[in-house]
Amino acid sequence: MQVTQQHRKFIIPLITGLTMLVYLILLYQLPRSNFFAIYLSFLLLFASYFYIVKEEQIFSLEFCIGLAIMLRLFAVFSLPALSDDYFRFIWDGKMFLHHVNPFSFTPKEYLSTHADGQLQFLYNNLIPESQESFTIYPAVLQYIFAIAAKLFPANPYGAAVVMKLFIFIAECFTLYGLLLLSKGKNLPSRNILWYALNPLVIVELTGNVHFEALLICFLVFTFYFLEKNKIAFAALFWALAICSKILPVMLAPLFLMYLGFWRFFKTGLLTVVFTTILFIPLIDHQLFAHLSDSVGKYYNLFEFNGSFYYLFVRISQLVSDNDYSAQIASMLGAIALVLILFISFFRFKKEVLFEKALWIFFIYFLSAAMVHPWYISTLVALGVFTKYKFPVVFSLLIPLSYFPYWLKVYNENMWVILLEYSLLLLFVLSELKINNGKTKGSMSSAFSRLLNII
Protein backbone atom coordinates (compact mmCIF):
# COMPACT_ATOMS: atom_id res chain seq x y z
CA MET A 1 0.00 0.00 0.00
CA GLN A 2 2.88 2.35 0.88
CA VAL A 3 4.51 1.77 -2.54
CA THR A 4 1.20 2.37 -4.27
CA GLN A 5 0.71 5.65 -2.41
CA GLN A 6 4.21 6.81 -3.31
CA HIS A 7 3.58 5.82 -6.91
CA ARG A 8 0.34 7.81 -6.93
CA LYS A 9 2.00 10.88 -5.44
CA PHE A 10 4.61 10.78 -8.18
CA ILE A 11 2.63 9.76 -11.25
CA ILE A 12 -0.51 11.92 -10.78
CA PRO A 13 1.23 15.33 -10.85
CA LEU A 14 3.65 14.16 -13.54
CA ILE A 15 1.00 12.94 -16.01
CA THR A 16 -1.39 15.79 -15.17
CA GLY A 17 1.31 18.42 -15.56
CA LEU A 18 2.58 17.04 -18.87
CA THR A 19 -0.97 16.74 -20.17
CA MET A 20 -1.78 20.34 -19.32
CA LEU A 21 1.49 21.49 -20.89
CA VAL A 22 0.64 19.79 -24.19
CA TYR A 23 -2.87 21.28 -24.10
CA LEU A 24 -1.32 24.70 -23.49
CA ILE A 25 0.92 24.32 -26.54
CA LEU A 26 -1.84 22.92 -28.77
CA LEU A 27 -4.55 25.38 -27.78
CA TYR A 28 -2.51 28.55 -27.32
CA GLN A 29 0.64 28.25 -29.42
CA LEU A 30 0.27 26.13 -32.56
CA PRO A 31 -1.16 27.59 -35.79
CA ARG A 32 -3.27 25.37 -38.02
CA SER A 33 -0.51 25.33 -40.64
CA ASN A 34 1.87 23.47 -38.29
CA PHE A 35 0.32 20.08 -38.99
CA PHE A 36 3.12 17.85 -37.73
CA ALA A 37 3.36 19.58 -34.35
CA ILE A 38 -0.44 19.50 -34.06
CA TYR A 39 -0.70 15.79 -34.78
CA LEU A 40 2.24 15.00 -32.50
CA SER A 41 0.43 16.92 -29.76
CA PHE A 42 -2.71 14.85 -30.36
CA LEU A 43 -0.67 11.64 -30.21
CA LEU A 44 0.86 12.66 -26.87
CA LEU A 45 -2.54 13.65 -25.49
CA PHE A 46 -4.09 10.38 -26.62
CA ALA A 47 -1.26 8.42 -24.95
CA SER A 48 -1.95 10.30 -21.71
CA TYR A 49 -5.71 9.80 -22.16
CA PHE A 50 -5.42 6.02 -22.61
CA TYR A 51 -3.13 5.76 -19.60
CA ILE A 52 -5.36 7.83 -17.30
CA VAL A 53 -8.55 5.99 -18.27
CA LYS A 54 -6.97 2.56 -17.88
CA GLU A 55 -5.11 3.17 -14.60
CA GLU A 56 -8.14 3.33 -12.33
CA GLN A 57 -6.08 2.45 -9.23
CA ILE A 58 -4.05 5.61 -9.72
CA PHE A 59 -6.58 8.03 -11.20
CA SER A 60 -9.93 7.89 -9.41
CA LEU A 61 -13.18 8.63 -11.20
CA GLU A 62 -13.67 11.80 -9.19
CA PHE A 63 -10.18 13.04 -10.04
CA CYS A 64 -10.69 12.28 -13.74
CA ILE A 65 -14.00 14.13 -13.91
CA GLY A 66 -12.41 17.10 -12.16
CA LEU A 67 -9.52 16.97 -14.64
CA ALA A 68 -11.95 16.80 -17.58
CA ILE A 69 -13.77 19.90 -16.34
CA MET A 70 -10.50 21.74 -15.64
CA LEU A 71 -9.14 20.99 -19.14
CA ARG A 72 -12.33 22.33 -20.71
CA LEU A 73 -12.13 25.46 -18.59
CA PHE A 74 -8.50 25.75 -19.66
CA ALA A 75 -9.66 25.67 -23.30
CA VAL A 76 -12.34 28.35 -22.85
CA PHE A 77 -9.90 31.25 -23.06
CA SER A 78 -7.85 30.13 -26.07
CA LEU A 79 -8.38 31.77 -29.45
CA PRO A 80 -9.76 29.06 -31.78
CA ALA A 81 -6.72 27.98 -33.78
CA LEU A 82 -7.97 25.01 -35.80
CA SER A 83 -11.19 26.53 -37.11
CA ASP A 84 -12.45 29.96 -38.15
CA ASP A 85 -16.16 29.05 -38.11
CA TYR A 86 -16.70 31.40 -35.20
CA PHE A 87 -16.55 34.37 -37.58
CA ARG A 88 -19.73 33.09 -39.25
CA PHE A 89 -21.29 32.55 -35.83
CA ILE A 90 -20.63 36.17 -34.93
CA TRP A 91 -21.92 37.30 -38.34
CA ASP A 92 -25.22 35.51 -37.74
CA GLY A 93 -25.43 36.99 -34.26
CA LYS A 94 -24.96 40.50 -35.60
CA MET A 95 -27.67 39.91 -38.22
CA PHE A 96 -30.07 38.92 -35.47
CA LEU A 97 -29.18 42.01 -33.44
CA HIS A 98 -29.74 44.18 -36.53
CA HIS A 99 -33.26 42.71 -36.71
CA VAL A 100 -32.30 40.87 -39.87
CA ASN A 101 -33.25 37.23 -40.11
CA PRO A 102 -29.94 35.30 -40.52
CA PHE A 103 -31.73 32.98 -42.95
CA SER A 104 -32.84 35.83 -45.24
CA PHE A 105 -29.53 36.92 -46.83
CA THR A 106 -26.18 35.46 -47.66
CA PRO A 107 -23.30 37.59 -46.31
CA LYS A 108 -22.41 38.62 -49.86
CA GLU A 109 -25.99 39.74 -50.57
CA TYR A 110 -26.25 41.72 -47.35
CA LEU A 111 -22.95 43.57 -47.75
CA SER A 112 -23.82 44.51 -51.31
CA THR A 113 -26.47 46.87 -49.94
CA HIS A 114 -25.17 47.67 -46.45
CA ALA A 115 -21.82 49.26 -45.61
CA ASP A 116 -20.50 48.24 -42.20
CA GLY A 117 -16.85 48.10 -41.14
CA GLN A 118 -17.31 45.41 -38.49
CA LEU A 119 -19.35 43.21 -40.81
CA GLN A 120 -16.77 43.71 -43.56
CA PHE A 121 -14.06 42.45 -41.20
CA LEU A 122 -16.11 39.35 -40.39
CA TYR A 123 -16.90 38.82 -44.06
CA ASN A 124 -13.22 38.91 -44.97
CA ASN A 125 -12.60 36.07 -42.51
CA LEU A 126 -15.31 33.82 -43.96
CA ILE A 127 -14.44 31.07 -46.42
CA PRO A 128 -15.83 31.78 -49.93
CA GLU A 129 -18.51 29.07 -49.61
CA SER A 130 -19.79 30.67 -46.42
CA GLN A 131 -19.81 34.14 -47.98
CA GLU A 132 -22.26 32.95 -50.63
CA SER A 133 -24.43 30.64 -48.52
CA PHE A 134 -27.41 31.15 -46.25
CA THR A 135 -26.81 30.13 -42.68
CA ILE A 136 -27.28 26.48 -41.74
CA TYR A 137 -27.25 26.99 -37.98
CA PRO A 138 -30.62 26.36 -36.28
CA ALA A 139 -32.49 28.44 -33.73
CA VAL A 140 -30.75 27.57 -30.44
CA LEU A 141 -27.37 28.45 -31.90
CA GLN A 142 -28.65 31.71 -33.39
CA TYR A 143 -29.67 32.93 -29.94
CA ILE A 144 -26.25 32.06 -28.52
CA PHE A 145 -24.57 33.86 -31.43
CA ALA A 146 -26.70 36.92 -30.75
CA ILE A 147 -25.81 36.96 -27.04
CA ALA A 148 -22.10 36.71 -27.85
CA ALA A 149 -22.31 39.47 -30.48
CA LYS A 150 -24.28 41.67 -28.08
CA LEU A 151 -21.76 41.33 -25.25
CA PHE A 152 -18.71 41.84 -27.49
CA PRO A 153 -19.87 43.74 -30.59
CA ALA A 154 -16.36 44.66 -31.77
CA ASN A 155 -14.26 41.90 -30.22
CA PRO A 156 -14.32 38.49 -31.99
CA TYR A 157 -12.16 36.94 -29.27
CA GLY A 158 -14.54 38.06 -26.52
CA ALA A 159 -17.53 36.82 -28.49
CA ALA A 160 -15.78 33.47 -28.99
CA VAL A 161 -15.16 33.16 -25.24
CA VAL A 162 -18.85 33.80 -24.54
CA MET A 163 -19.83 31.05 -26.98
CA LYS A 164 -17.23 28.77 -25.40
CA LEU A 165 -18.80 29.35 -22.00
CA PHE A 166 -22.11 28.02 -23.34
CA ILE A 167 -20.22 25.00 -24.69
CA PHE A 168 -18.41 24.54 -21.37
CA ILE A 169 -21.71 24.56 -19.45
CA ALA A 170 -23.23 22.10 -21.94
CA GLU A 171 -20.23 19.80 -21.56
CA CYS A 172 -20.56 19.84 -17.76
CA PHE A 173 -24.21 18.83 -18.10
CA THR A 174 -23.20 16.17 -20.61
CA LEU A 175 -20.84 14.59 -18.10
CA TYR A 176 -23.62 14.61 -15.51
CA GLY A 177 -26.07 13.10 -17.99
CA LEU A 178 -23.59 10.40 -19.00
CA LEU A 179 -23.19 9.49 -15.33
CA LEU A 180 -26.96 9.28 -14.86
CA LEU A 181 -27.39 7.09 -17.93
CA SER A 182 -24.48 4.84 -16.96
CA LYS A 183 -25.94 4.24 -13.52
CA GLY A 184 -29.39 3.67 -14.99
CA LYS A 185 -28.03 1.05 -17.38
CA ASN A 186 -25.81 -0.57 -14.70
CA LEU A 187 -22.68 0.23 -16.68
CA PRO A 188 -19.34 1.12 -15.08
CA SER A 189 -19.35 4.84 -14.37
CA ARG A 190 -15.72 4.97 -15.52
CA ASN A 191 -16.92 4.38 -19.09
CA ILE A 192 -17.82 8.06 -19.33
CA LEU A 193 -14.12 8.93 -19.21
CA TRP A 194 -13.77 7.73 -22.82
CA TYR A 195 -15.77 10.86 -23.66
CA ALA A 196 -14.84 13.13 -20.74
CA LEU A 197 -11.08 13.01 -21.34
CA ASN A 198 -11.03 12.49 -25.09
CA PRO A 199 -8.52 15.04 -26.51
CA LEU A 200 -10.41 15.55 -29.77
CA VAL A 201 -13.61 16.33 -27.85
CA ILE A 202 -11.88 18.82 -25.58
CA VAL A 203 -9.89 20.56 -28.31
CA GLU A 204 -12.57 20.68 -30.99
CA LEU A 205 -15.66 21.47 -28.93
CA THR A 206 -14.58 23.82 -26.14
CA GLY A 207 -11.27 24.78 -27.74
CA ASN A 208 -12.48 25.49 -31.27
CA VAL A 209 -16.09 26.59 -30.59
CA HIS A 210 -18.08 23.74 -32.11
CA PHE A 211 -21.66 23.26 -31.04
CA GLU A 212 -21.76 19.50 -31.33
CA ALA A 213 -21.35 20.01 -27.58
CA LEU A 214 -24.97 21.18 -27.36
CA LEU A 215 -26.18 18.46 -29.73
CA ILE A 216 -24.54 15.81 -27.53
CA CYS A 217 -25.79 17.34 -24.28
CA PHE A 218 -29.39 17.49 -25.47
CA LEU A 219 -29.23 14.01 -27.03
CA VAL A 220 -27.90 12.51 -23.80
CA PHE A 221 -30.87 13.89 -21.89
CA THR A 222 -33.23 12.82 -24.68
CA PHE A 223 -32.06 9.25 -24.17
CA TYR A 224 -32.21 9.65 -20.39
CA PHE A 225 -35.82 10.80 -20.38
CA LEU A 226 -36.81 8.17 -22.95
CA GLU A 227 -35.49 5.49 -20.62
CA LYS A 228 -37.37 7.14 -17.73
CA ASN A 229 -40.53 7.14 -19.91
CA LYS A 230 -40.93 10.91 -19.52
CA ILE A 231 -42.19 11.69 -23.00
CA ALA A 232 -42.63 15.45 -22.66
CA PHE A 233 -39.07 15.98 -21.40
CA ALA A 234 -37.68 13.62 -24.04
CA ALA A 235 -39.50 15.59 -26.75
CA LEU A 236 -38.22 18.90 -25.36
CA PHE A 237 -34.60 17.76 -25.39
CA TRP A 238 -34.95 16.14 -28.81
CA ALA A 239 -36.29 19.48 -30.11
CA LEU A 240 -33.37 21.30 -28.49
CA ALA A 241 -30.95 18.84 -30.12
CA ILE A 242 -32.56 19.36 -33.54
CA CYS A 243 -32.47 23.13 -33.03
CA SER A 244 -28.73 22.86 -32.31
CA LYS A 245 -27.85 20.58 -35.23
CA ILE A 246 -30.29 19.05 -37.70
CA LEU A 247 -28.77 15.55 -37.59
CA PRO A 248 -30.83 14.15 -34.66
CA VAL A 249 -33.80 13.97 -37.04
CA MET A 250 -32.11 10.78 -38.30
CA LEU A 251 -33.06 9.06 -35.06
CA ALA A 252 -36.80 9.33 -35.72
CA PRO A 253 -37.17 5.75 -37.12
CA LEU A 254 -35.16 4.38 -34.19
CA PHE A 255 -37.32 6.23 -31.66
CA LEU A 256 -40.41 4.91 -33.45
CA MET A 257 -39.27 1.36 -32.81
CA TYR A 258 -38.27 2.14 -29.23
CA LEU A 259 -41.51 3.91 -28.27
CA GLY A 260 -44.11 2.19 -30.43
CA PHE A 261 -46.45 4.03 -32.74
CA TRP A 262 -48.71 5.93 -30.34
CA ARG A 263 -46.04 6.96 -27.86
CA PHE A 264 -43.82 8.01 -30.77
CA PHE A 265 -46.71 9.96 -32.29
CA LYS A 266 -47.10 11.92 -29.04
CA THR A 267 -43.36 12.44 -28.72
CA GLY A 268 -43.00 13.48 -32.35
CA LEU A 269 -45.91 15.90 -32.12
CA LEU A 270 -44.49 17.51 -28.99
CA THR A 271 -41.06 17.71 -30.64
CA VAL A 272 -42.57 19.54 -33.62
CA VAL A 273 -44.37 21.94 -31.28
CA PHE A 274 -41.21 22.68 -29.25
CA THR A 275 -39.14 23.07 -32.42
CA THR A 276 -41.68 25.51 -33.87
CA ILE A 277 -41.68 27.55 -30.67
CA LEU A 278 -37.89 27.73 -30.70
CA PHE A 279 -37.92 28.92 -34.32
CA ILE A 280 -40.71 31.52 -33.92
CA PRO A 281 -38.40 34.59 -33.92
CA LEU A 282 -36.80 33.31 -37.13
CA ILE A 283 -39.86 32.25 -39.09
CA ASP A 284 -40.65 34.17 -42.26
CA HIS A 285 -41.73 33.30 -45.79
CA GLN A 286 -38.13 32.66 -46.84
CA LEU A 287 -37.03 30.47 -43.95
CA PHE A 288 -37.77 27.03 -45.36
CA ALA A 289 -36.58 27.82 -48.88
CA HIS A 290 -33.29 29.32 -47.70
CA LEU A 291 -32.72 26.64 -45.05
CA SER A 292 -33.32 23.96 -47.67
CA ASP A 293 -30.90 25.73 -50.00
CA SER A 294 -28.15 25.90 -47.37
CA VAL A 295 -28.71 22.27 -46.32
CA GLY A 296 -28.59 21.21 -49.96
CA LYS A 297 -25.30 23.03 -50.51
CA TYR A 298 -23.89 21.73 -47.26
CA TYR A 299 -24.54 18.08 -48.06
CA ASN A 300 -24.06 18.12 -51.84
CA LEU A 301 -21.45 20.75 -52.71
CA PHE A 302 -19.10 21.12 -49.74
CA GLU A 303 -16.27 18.58 -49.53
CA PHE A 304 -13.83 17.74 -46.77
CA ASN A 305 -12.38 14.44 -45.60
CA GLY A 306 -15.02 12.31 -47.32
CA SER A 307 -14.49 8.55 -47.43
CA PHE A 308 -16.68 6.64 -49.88
CA TYR A 309 -17.66 9.93 -51.49
CA TYR A 310 -14.06 10.65 -52.48
CA LEU A 311 -13.59 7.04 -53.59
CA PHE A 312 -16.52 7.13 -55.99
CA VAL A 313 -15.68 10.63 -57.23
CA ARG A 314 -12.15 9.50 -58.09
CA ILE A 315 -13.49 6.42 -59.88
CA SER A 316 -15.92 8.56 -61.87
CA GLN A 317 -13.05 10.85 -62.90
CA LEU A 318 -11.16 7.86 -64.28
CA VAL A 319 -14.01 6.84 -66.59
CA SER A 320 -15.47 10.22 -67.53
CA ASP A 321 -14.59 13.89 -67.91
CA ASN A 322 -18.00 14.92 -66.55
CA ASP A 323 -18.43 16.03 -62.94
CA TYR A 324 -20.69 13.55 -61.14
CA SER A 325 -19.92 14.72 -57.59
CA ALA A 326 -23.45 16.04 -56.91
CA GLN A 327 -25.01 12.81 -58.20
CA ILE A 328 -22.60 10.72 -56.12
CA ALA A 329 -23.43 12.73 -52.99
CA SER A 330 -27.15 12.19 -53.62
CA MET A 331 -26.64 8.48 -54.31
CA LEU A 332 -24.65 7.97 -51.10
CA GLY A 333 -27.27 9.94 -49.18
CA ALA A 334 -29.99 7.64 -50.51
CA ILE A 335 -27.96 4.56 -49.60
CA ALA A 336 -27.34 5.93 -46.12
CA LEU A 337 -31.08 6.56 -45.70
CA VAL A 338 -31.92 2.98 -46.67
CA LEU A 339 -29.29 1.62 -44.27
CA ILE A 340 -30.49 3.89 -41.47
CA LEU A 341 -34.05 2.64 -41.94
CA PHE A 342 -32.81 -0.95 -42.06
CA ILE A 343 -30.78 -0.53 -38.87
CA SER A 344 -33.73 1.12 -37.12
CA PHE A 345 -36.38 -1.44 -38.06
CA PHE A 346 -34.56 -4.77 -38.39
CA ARG A 347 -34.29 -6.95 -35.27
CA PHE A 348 -34.98 -4.08 -32.92
CA LYS A 349 -34.40 -4.66 -29.22
CA LYS A 350 -34.40 -1.92 -26.60
CA GLU A 351 -31.10 -3.20 -25.22
CA VAL A 352 -29.26 -2.18 -28.39
CA LEU A 353 -30.71 1.32 -28.68
CA PHE A 354 -27.34 3.01 -28.23
CA GLU A 355 -25.53 0.59 -30.53
CA LYS A 356 -28.06 1.24 -33.26
CA ALA A 357 -27.79 5.01 -32.75
CA LEU A 358 -24.00 4.68 -32.96
CA TRP A 359 -24.17 2.78 -36.26
CA ILE A 360 -26.71 5.24 -37.68
CA PHE A 361 -24.38 8.19 -37.12
CA PHE A 362 -21.35 6.19 -38.29
CA ILE A 363 -23.03 5.19 -41.56
CA TYR A 364 -24.05 8.78 -42.13
CA PHE A 365 -20.45 9.96 -41.70
CA LEU A 366 -19.15 7.25 -44.04
CA SER A 367 -21.59 8.44 -46.71
CA ALA A 368 -20.98 12.18 -46.22
CA ALA A 369 -18.89 14.39 -48.51
CA MET A 370 -17.77 16.49 -45.54
CA VAL A 371 -16.60 15.03 -42.23
CA HIS A 372 -14.87 17.55 -40.00
CA PRO A 373 -12.99 16.27 -36.94
CA TRP A 374 -15.47 17.65 -34.42
CA TYR A 375 -18.32 15.65 -35.96
CA ILE A 376 -16.84 12.48 -34.46
CA SER A 377 -17.48 13.67 -30.91
CA THR A 378 -21.07 12.43 -31.24
CA LEU A 379 -19.79 8.92 -31.96
CA VAL A 380 -17.47 9.10 -28.94
CA ALA A 381 -20.42 10.01 -26.68
CA LEU A 382 -22.65 7.22 -28.00
CA GLY A 383 -19.78 4.75 -27.78
CA VAL A 384 -19.74 5.18 -23.99
CA PHE A 385 -22.81 2.92 -23.80
CA THR A 386 -21.55 0.23 -26.14
CA LYS A 387 -18.70 -2.26 -26.22
CA TYR A 388 -17.17 -0.56 -29.26
CA LYS A 389 -14.04 1.56 -29.14
CA PHE A 390 -13.83 2.44 -32.85
CA PRO A 391 -15.20 5.95 -32.15
CA VAL A 392 -12.14 6.55 -29.96
CA VAL A 393 -9.86 5.24 -32.72
CA PHE A 394 -11.68 7.45 -35.24
CA SER A 395 -11.09 10.45 -32.97
CA LEU A 396 -7.37 9.61 -32.96
CA LEU A 397 -7.17 9.24 -36.74
CA ILE A 398 -9.33 12.12 -37.93
CA PRO A 399 -6.89 14.93 -36.98
CA LEU A 400 -4.94 13.63 -40.00
CA SER A 401 -7.51 15.62 -42.01
CA TYR A 402 -5.69 18.81 -40.95
CA PHE A 403 -2.79 17.81 -43.21
CA PRO A 404 -3.88 20.09 -46.13
CA TYR A 405 -3.49 23.21 -43.98
CA TRP A 406 0.25 22.51 -43.88
CA LEU A 407 0.42 23.09 -47.63
CA LYS A 408 0.74 26.61 -48.98
CA VAL A 409 -1.95 25.79 -51.54
CA TYR A 410 -4.86 23.98 -49.88
CA ASN A 411 -5.27 20.56 -51.46
CA GLU A 412 -6.45 17.40 -49.73
CA ASN A 413 -4.06 14.47 -49.96
CA MET A 414 -5.95 11.34 -50.96
CA TRP A 415 -3.21 9.09 -49.58
CA VAL A 416 -3.62 10.59 -46.13
CA ILE A 417 -7.39 10.16 -46.30
CA LEU A 418 -6.95 6.59 -47.55
CA LEU A 419 -4.66 5.87 -44.59
CA GLU A 420 -7.16 7.39 -42.15
CA TYR A 421 -10.19 5.43 -43.34
CA SER A 422 -8.32 2.20 -44.09
CA LEU A 423 -7.02 2.01 -40.54
CA LEU A 424 -10.45 2.92 -39.20
CA LEU A 425 -12.34 0.30 -41.21
CA LEU A 426 -9.78 -2.39 -40.35
CA PHE A 427 -10.28 -1.61 -36.67
CA VAL A 428 -14.08 -1.64 -37.06
CA LEU A 429 -13.96 -5.07 -38.70
CA SER A 430 -11.58 -6.39 -36.05
CA GLU A 431 -13.89 -5.16 -33.28
CA LEU A 432 -16.86 -6.83 -34.93
CA LYS A 433 -14.93 -10.10 -35.12
CA ILE A 434 -13.73 -9.89 -31.52
CA ASN A 435 -17.22 -9.11 -30.26
CA ASN A 436 -18.46 -12.10 -32.22
CA GLY A 437 -16.22 -14.25 -30.05
CA LYS A 438 -13.87 -15.35 -32.82
CA THR A 439 -10.16 -14.89 -32.96
CA LYS A 440 -9.91 -16.57 -36.35
CA GLY A 441 -12.18 -16.76 -39.32
CA SER A 442 -13.23 -14.97 -42.43
CA MET A 443 -14.25 -11.37 -42.75
CA SER A 444 -17.84 -12.57 -43.02
CA SER A 445 -17.86 -13.17 -39.25
CA ALA A 446 -17.52 -9.43 -38.74
CA PHE A 447 -20.49 -8.73 -40.98
CA SER A 448 -22.51 -11.43 -39.23
CA ARG A 449 -21.88 -9.60 -35.95
CA LEU A 450 -23.07 -6.35 -37.52
CA LEU A 451 -26.23 -8.10 -38.75
CA ASN A 452 -26.88 -9.37 -35.23
CA ILE A 453 -26.75 -5.77 -34.01
CA ILE A 454 -28.99 -4.27 -36.67
Question: In words, what does this structure look like?
Answer:
Helix 8 packs across helix 9 (156-184) and helix 14 packs across helix 15. The longest helix has 29 residues, at 156-184. Among the domains are: 1-209, no CATH class; 211-281, no CATH class. It contains 23 helices and no strands. The protein is mainly α.
* End-to-end C-alpha gap: 47 Å
Catalogue the unreliable spans: 438-447
Helix segment count? Answer: 23
The secondary-structure class comes to: mainly alpha
* Content of β-strand: under 5%
Average pLDDT works out at 91
Helix content: 55-70%
- Output the radius of gyration: 22 Å
Order of helices and strands: HHHHHHHHHHHHHHHHHHHHHHH
Shape: globular
Set down the secondary structure blueprint.
Blueprint lengths: L1 H27 L6 H20 L6 H16 L9 H12 L9 H5 L5 H8 L3 H4 L7 H13 L4 H29 L8 H4 L2 H9 L4 H16 L3 H12 L9 H8 L1 H19 L7 H14 L7 H12 L5 H21 L7 H15 L9 H7 L6 H8 L16 H22 L8 H10 L1
Name some characteristics of this structure.
mainly alpha, globular, single chain, about 450 residues
Task: Give a concise summary.
With 454 residues, this protein is mainly alpha-helical.
